[in-house]
UniProtKB/TrEMBL annotation:
Species: Alteromonas confluentis
Pfam families: BcrAD_BadFG (PF01869)
PANTHER family given in the database record: N-ACETYL-D-GLUCOSAMINE KINASE
Domain ATPase BadF/BadG/BcrA/BcrD type, first and last residues per copy: 3-278
InterPro entries: ATPase_BadF, ATPase_NBD, Euk-type_GlcNAc_Kinase
Domain of life: Bacteria
Name this polypeptide is given: ATPase BadF/BadG/BcrA/BcrD type domain-containing protein
SUPFAM superfamilies on file: Actin-like ATPase domain
Length: 284
């Protein structure tokens, strides 16, 4: 049997498949980007796998018979790849790749195409024949434009400035402060990671739906950035582009008709792409 893992900055999703590619069950764990904590990433992978086995009515001892393919955010960084490859995992085998690669494999079933991931973080990849174009993925806060963590960070900054009357008042003050003062918000976020800031992203969409100008401006910036990345993927030669992540899909209605015409639904999930990768690795 196979388990496919899609591990990001907020959650780790798993599917369990039999030899014939039939999905038996699913599982979910916590944040799985090793950049934000290697032990946390490994524990989240185990959590998702065990939950998938539980949901299938199988003993957790079966984990030693499972071939696992895992597409993880942050794995494009050599140090992260090495430390995860050295993991003394309990699986029959573990094939590791990036979340981007797994997403492309699943979205286009191994054919040419591109993906833009905007979830907690940001990254993109186009595959055309033997050529690849990788964009972003260097992590929060330096390279997370348009993502949930970026929206959350910008929202916090806007709230703190508004509280000091140095920027326009915004509904985000009510949503983020939640009855507390600005000092409490600052203390909670001053050294926070991408996952923490990503939790504020839904507030930006909520405020924008109430015609809040500050929030709408943030979404405009995120949308413009996403469209510029999609343009680079198509210019590279990607015949299809798929959006992955809650933020990317929430921004889609805000994109131009021209951009929307280049977007295609994924043919399979990143988890299924990870299993495809594991099957390929097992045959080598």
């Amino acid at each position: 049997m196979f388990i496919g893992i899609d591990g990001g900055g907020t959650s780790c999703k798993a599917i369990l498949q039999n030899e014939n590619g039939h999905t038996i069950s699913q599982g979910i764990g916590g944040p799985a980007n090793p950049v934000n904590g290697v032990s946390q990433s490994q524990n989240s992978i185990l959590e998702a796998c065990f939950q998938a086995l539980d949901n299938a009515g199988l003993s957790r001892e079966c984990v030693g018979e499972i071939t696992v393919g895992a597409g993880l955010a942050g794995l494009h960084l050599g140090a992260m790849q090495q430390v995860m490859m050295n993991w003394a995992h309990p699986f029959k085998s573990l094939a590791l790749t990036t979340d981007l690669h797994a997403a492309v494999l699943g979205a286009h079933l191994g054919h040419d195409g591109g993906v833009l991931i905007l979830g907690t973080g940001f990254s993109a990849l186009a595959v055309c024949g033997q050529q690849r174009l990788a964009i972003g993925g260097m992590g929060f806060p330096i390279n997370a434009n348009g993502s949930g963590s970026w929206l959350g960070l910008e929202a916090v900054k806007a709230v703190l400035l508004a509280e000091d009357q140095l920027a326009p008042q915004t509904i985000l003050q009510y949503l983020l402060l939640a009855g507390e003062n600005k000092t409490v918000l600052a203390q909670h976020t001053v050294n926070a990671n991408a996952t923490t800031f990503g939790q504020y992203a839904p507030a930006v969409f909520e405020a924008a739906s109430q015609n809040d100008e500050v929030a709408q401006n943030l979404l405009r910036q995120a949308t413009q950035f996403a469209e510029s990345v999609i343009e680079k993927l198509t210019d590279f030669g990607a015949p299809r582009v798929t959006l992955i992540g809650s933020v990317a899909n929430a921004l889609l209605p805000l994109m131009s008709a021209e951009t929307q015409s280049t977007i295609h639904a994924a043919k399979a999930s990143p988890q299924e792409g990870a299993i495809m990768f594991a099957r390929q690795a097992a045959q080598q």
